[in-house]
Amino acid sequence: MSxxxxxxxxQSESRGGRKKGVGSGGWGVGSGEWGIGKGKKKLLxxxxxxxxPTPHSLFAFFALFAFFASSSHSAPTANSTTPGGLxxxxxxxxxxxxxxxxLEHPLDLATVLAPRSPARPGATIWLRGxxxxxxxxxxxxxxxxxxxxxxxxxxxxxxxxxxxxxxPPLTINGGYAIYHGFEVVNSSxxxxxxxxxxxxxxGHHVKLINLxxxxxxxxxxxxxxxxxxxxxxxxxxxxxxxxxxxxxxHGHGVYGQNAEGMKRIVNNIIFDxxxxxxxxxxxxxxxxxxxxxxNIIFDNGSTSTPxxxxxxxxxxxxxxxxxxxxxTNNYTYYPDSIxxxxxxxxxxxxxxxxxxLDGNYIAGGNSPLMMSEWLRAKCVNNTLTGFERLVxxxxxxxxxxxxxxxxxxxxxxxxxxxxxxxxxxxxxKLATYTFTDWSRxxxxxxxxxxxxxxxxxxxxxxxxxxxxQYEAGRANIVVxxxxxxxxxxxxxxxxxxxxxxxxxxxxxxLYGQPALSGVYSGAPLLLPMSGSQPAQEFGxxxxxxxxxxxx
Length: 551
Hints:
With about 550 residues, the protein is mainly beta. It is built from three helices and 46 strands. The chain is globular and about 75 Å long.
C-alpha cells in the first residue's frame, strides 16, 4: 500500500520563492488583458451540467447542517473584530442596504460588495446562512498586508444562486481579497442551453478558498487580469450543459488564461464537468505562468453525451505558446470505459517554452499523456496508466530529445496493449516504440519501469491525504483502490489529533451522510468505498474536523 500525507505548499513555501500567504506582504501588482470570443473554443466561455440533487427531507437538512457546522473555525461574537482591530461586518439574505453590518442589523450582499463598500483593508465580512439570489459583482479591495475576507459564517450554509440571471452569480473585480467557504451555484434544471460562468475572477491577487462551485456554465473563469491569484481547496463539479445532438457537452471546471505573474490552482477537487476539468486555453490571449499542484481531477466529460468525447482532465494549450507551466503531485482518474486523453499539453501553438510534470499520478484513458511542440520539458517521478498509447510526443522542428529531462517514471498497461505504446513525432515523422526501444532511441526513462498486468492497472492501494493550509484538520483524500476492497485503511495522524471529532465526506455525496465520522483515536481508519462512483476502484473525500473535541 502506498500512502502519502503532506501539506500542499502555500505561496510562501512553493518552489522558486513564491509570494506570501494570506494576510502577509509580498503580493505584487500588475496588469493583464482578457477577451471574449465565440465558437467551439473561446477566451471567455462557460459550460454547465445537470443539477446537483437538493435535500428533500428534514433528515437531509440536519445532515447538511452538520456538514457546515463541522468547521473548526470558531463563530465570531457580536462585538468581534479582525486582527487589525476593525469590526466584523455581517451580511444576510434579508439584509438591508441601510443595515449597520452587525449581527442584529446585517447589510445586504450587493451593498457590501459595491465600489463604496464599508469594508476596509483587513476587514472580515461574514456571510450568514441562506440563499443569496441573483448576480453579484464584487469590488472589494484590500492591500497586500491587509486583504479583505468574505467568508461563510461558521456552522451555516451560505449559497449564491444565479438561477434566472444572465450573468455570473459572482464576478470579482478589485484586488487583495479572499473568498472563503461558501457555495456558488446555478440551480436551474435546464441543462440543454448555455448558462453563465459561476465565478468570474478579474481582480488581481484574489484567493478563492474552500468554495463549492457547482452546476454553473464554466465553474471558475480565471482570466488574465487576475494576476497572482489562487484557487485553493475548492470542490468544483457538474458545471456545463449539453449541446443539441450531434453536439457535445460544454463547460469546464476551471478556464484559465494568464499574461504575467503566476496563477495557482492548488489542492482542489474537480470532477464531472460537461467539458474539461482544468482548461487553460486561449485563442488570442496568453498562457504564461500556471502552477497546478495537489489537485484531484477525475471523470470530466462523463456527464455529457457522448461521455467519451475526449475531454481531458487537464488541458494546457491554445493558439498562443505557453510558458512557465508546472504540474506537480496531481491525481487524475478515468475508468477503463472512457476513451480520452487524460493530460493534454498543447492545442495547436508552436514554440511552447517550458513545462514540468513531477510526481503526478495519471490513471486511465486510452492515453495518459499527450504533448506537442514544447521547446523544453521535464517529466519525472510520474505514474501513468492507460490502455492504448501511454505517451505521445510531437517534437518542435529542430529540437532534439536531449532538450527534455524524462526519467524515473512508472508506466502500467495491460497485456493486450500494443507492444509499442510510446509514440514520437520528430521532424514530421511518426514512429512508435517498445519501452526498450523508446529509452534507447530518445535517451528517456533510463531509470523508469513499464509494468504489464491483466487489467492494465496497478495492484494494492494508492492513498494520498492532502492537508489544507487554510483550515486545520481539513484535508482532501484520494484513494486508488486497485484491489476493489470494500474498506481501505487510511492514516490521518498528520491531519488530526487524538480527541478530534471529524467527518469524512465522499465528494459524490458532499451534503449527505458522512462516509465516516467519529472521534479520532490515533489509529488508522477504515474508510468505506462502496459509495464511490463510477467505480469502487477510485474515491475522493473531504476530511473536516469539527469545532468541538472529546477530551
